[in-house]
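Dear colleagues,

As part of the handover before I leave the project, I'm documenting each prediction I ran so the next person doesn't have to rerun anything. This entry is a single chain, and its sequence is reproduced below.
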Amino acid sequence: MFKDVKTPPIKEIIPDNNLNRVRLFIKREDQLHPIISGNKWRKLKYNLVAAKKAGQTTLLTFGGAYSNHIHAVAGAAKEYGFKSIGVIRGEEHLPLNPTLSDAREMGMEFHYMDRTTYRQKHTKGVIDNFRKQFGEFYLIPEGGTNELALKGASEIVEGIENDYDYFCVACGTAGTATGIISGLNGKAEVMGFSVLKGDFHKQEIRNWLTIINKPKLKNWQVNIDYHFGGYAKFDLQLINFINKFKSDFNIQLDPIYTGKMLYGVFDLITQGYFPENSRVLTIHSGGLQGITGFNQRFSNHIKT
């Protein structure tokens, strides 16, 4: 079912001001698939298998107007023979932004929901109304994080020789970080870099680890110092870092997830946070489709 997926390469990158001689690497999960890239493909993999096994022909999920997840579900549905419905937070705005335009071209049907109702999107009453309106469907939560998503995310570290001291990843719903923690099963240290304002990811990870029967795993932490003001917030310092990273290493980062995580890792290296000769593996979790919409909204800040 997933024969076209590539094996992501791992590349070493050399940061400046590296007094502790940290060896820094990046796993190019963004190169898994041209549309369903990075952690989105990992999270959807076993959900698609479950939907097929259940005989479902339609996927329904939720997201904002610029959601990587909405884009990925639309692409996955098209590639693997499903219909798709995207419940979009807020009112319809025309013309569609690049994310939603792509999703519609890939066959996704949109249903817009006011923000008050959207907060109740996973309640039984709302889901029952969707079933009355659309018929049967396979439900994928906003952001894609559920137990099957954690199973898929755990495979990000499968087959990697375990000589890394730290694994670093951006945190949105904390599903990818939890999957990596599960996959490592007590080996090395996992650092999640929150892209949202607030210190709630720690409890989310604890909750998910309990659900998958791995509550004793403690080899992880969440850094909340590099969210740049909250989800989708940024400043020119972050944009300049992303553009310099592209120029120096020929690797594109996005301003919502990977840019913030790599900025944090580089800053910690400069501060001497990582012990001497540490080996640090960062996970490029994709999200590059959103750059077109970001540049459309914010005057082409990011060079591509």
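The chain has a mean pLDDT of 95. The two ends are 32 Å apart (CA to CA).

All the best with the project,
I.
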